[in-house]
Structures are given as structure tokens and as C-alpha cells.
Amino acid sequence: MENKSEKECCCHSSKHRSDKEYKDLMNRLSRIEGQVRGIKGMLEKDAYCPEILVQVSAVNAALNSFNKVLLANHIRTCVADDIRDGKDETVDELVKVLQKLMR
């Protein structure tokens, strides 16, 4: 079992992530960063607008996927731990975050 400092929740300015979670999130962001650089290169090379738009859509999908993974990890760790610890304000925080994500 993890010690409390390893599962200490996001209350709420930082969070310890496992090496696997950290590497997965960083890999996703690196791929997204590469996609954005690719779009910039397309624009610099006067690529056809629909081709750029398709790539922008792919970046949006990748960012949405990143959000889903991060949110799921947050719910499984921080939110679940806080609820078990009686910190109901975490549910309110989660609702606010979800409202922002669903705009």
C-alpha cells in the first residue's frame, strides 16, 4: 500500500504522479506538441487550408484524449481519496471543472 504522501491528494496545488502516469501524460503532450509544430510548418509552406484544418482537428482530438486520461486519473485518485476522507468540497471542485470542460 502507498504511504499517505504518495497518495496525498491534490488539495490542491500539486499532485504526485506515478512514473507510468507521468511518462504517459508527457508522451501524449510531446506528440501533441509535434502535431502543432507540424501545423505551423504546413502554414509556413502554404499548405491547402482543408489539409491544415484536418490536422487542427487531430490536435483537438488528441487534447481531448489527454483531458480524458487526466480526468480519469484525477477521479480515481484525488477525488476518490478525498471522498473517503470526508472532503466533500472536492466533489464541488470536480463539478466546476467538468462545467468548464463542457463549454
TrEMBL record:
GO biological process terms on file: negative regulation of DNA-templated transcription
One Pfam family linked to the record: Trns_repr_metal
Superkingdom of origin: Bacteria
CDD domains per UniProt: FpFrmR-Cterm-like_DUF156
GO molecular function annotations of the record: DNA binding; metal ion binding
InterPro entries: Metal_Tscrpt_repr (IPR003735), Metal_Tscrpt_repr_sf (IPR038390)
Name listed for the protein in its UniProt record: CsoR family transcriptional regulator
